[in-house]
Amino acid sequence: MQKLQGKVAAITGGNSGIGFAIAQRFVSEGAYVFIMGRRQAQLDEALSVLGENAEAVQGDVTKPDDLARLFETVKTRKGRLDILVPNSGISEYAPLEAISAEHFDHIFGINVRATLFTVQAESELVV
Q1: DSSP label at residue 29
Q2: Residue 79 and residue 71: Cα distance in Å, rounded?
């Protein structure tokens, strides 16, 4: 029996890396999966592997309108969301003395701020 049969999931950063691996596993376990990522070409490639139990929403997790569009799409297409994986994240390394406020804000914005606002947007938009 598939553990996630009939479940609906949304995964930010689901077009590559760990997020894509999670999406593959969820689909194999029976879930319908929405993936979000910034690059349409990577989303298209991911969908070609994930198959018919997945959809992609192009967007940037740092933009509230893009998050709202993700959850509105989930709500419109499936009516609910059972599993949220706020997976988007980046790694940009620099020597300590080279880290600027802009560099820090960029990384913190995606890895921390966007995670919080992804969960907040989901709680406001999906019933």
Answers
A1: T
A2: 10
Going along the chain from its start, the domains and CATH numbers come out as 8-125 (3.40.50.720)
Show the DSSP H helices in the chain as ranges: 17-28, 40-50, 64-78, 101-108, 114-125
Look up the pTM and report it: 0.91
Give the other-Cβ count within 10 Å of 42's Cβ. 17
DSSP3 helix / strand / coil % (the chain, rounded to 5):
50, 15, 30
Question: How many whole angstroms separate alpha carbon 26 and alpha carbon 87?
Answer: 14
Bridge-based pairing of strands 83-86 and 8-12 is parallel
Per-residue pLDDT of the chain in tens (127 residues, 90 and over written 9):
689 999 999 999 999 999 999 999 999 999 999 999 999 999 999 999 999 999 999 999 999 999 999 999 999 999 999 999 999 998 899 999 999 999 999 999 999 999 999 999 888 765 5
